[in-house]
Protein: ABC transporter ATP-binding protein
Amino acid sequence: MIQIKKLSFEYGQKVVYDDFSLSIQDAGIYGLFGRNGSGKSTLLKLISGLLFAHGGTLSVLGHEPSRRAPDFLALVYIVPEEFHLPNITLAQLADSQSPFYPNFSKAHFEEYAGIFEIPTDKGFESMSLGQKKKAVISFALATHTPILLMDEPTNGLDILGRAQFKIIMARAEHASRVVLISTHQAHDLESLMSHVLFVDGGSLALAADMMTLQSALSMGVTDDIGQLSDVIYQEHLGQQVAYVAANHSGQALPIHLELLYKALSLQKEGVLKALNNFAGTTSTKGGTA
Ligand SMILES: Nc1ncnc2c1ncn2[C@@H]1O[C@H](COP(=O)(O)OP(=O)(O)OP(=O)(O)O)[C@@H](O)[C@H]1O
Structure:
């Protein structure tokens, strides 16, 4: 669905991507992580055709995004981190924008807006930032485009809004889409995410599905770090220690995205080694089966 090969991109002298490759073939919710300034927003804009690559190739559903062909634009929706809305109501937004998206569902739009409790009688100028964000997210989800890109969607949402977001995202009608979400609010997506992508230093440091991460890594909080082997990352929390370690239990264990994020930011090589070792064991098992 998305194929990126040897992508390079700079803003003037600032190199953001250099030899970046990524392949997304399966539907799912992909969490796009990386430190501030690592290039997450830039990547979403490149995939949606809002920015043009300087080198390499990008193919999204067989289209080259930079051509911005109408057929392509009907297949991809991006929720940017910042946006401006004209002073219209929700219904007027649906009427004016939905003709560009052939799979748009007015019923779903109204349902999502209802779950988010967005006022239906007000223009956007008299809505709060969080309410406007909820309106854009509701519209984006109701377009049912096969590719949905969201840049920090839960930024500006209150605690209930974040819970409502999770409820809507988990609905079955989104299961066949590729949803790529850039976020620093890892906890908001923990239970939803099918894959984790981590960008670092202009390239893709990690692309893994949840099951692989759960099988290769062990993480949590312990009173006795000495009991654990192959600890990759640790952080003292009073008497206890939060940790990420290689998983030798033979079972899939829960992933705490914030801990994974810290381990990837500070001990990337250790995380990759644990994943490689796990891949080695599974391929050995596969070979002898
Ligand atoms: N319009 C621009 N002109 C020049 N440099 C830019 C521009 N937009 C972004 N950059 C730079 O490009 C790099 C990548 O920015 P980008 O916004 O893609 O990062 P990000 O990972 O989304 O960051 P954050 O997590 O802080 O939102 C940063 O170093 C940023 O300063």
Summary: Residues 2-201 form a domain with the Rossmann fold fold (CATH 3.40.50.300). The mean pLDDT is 92.
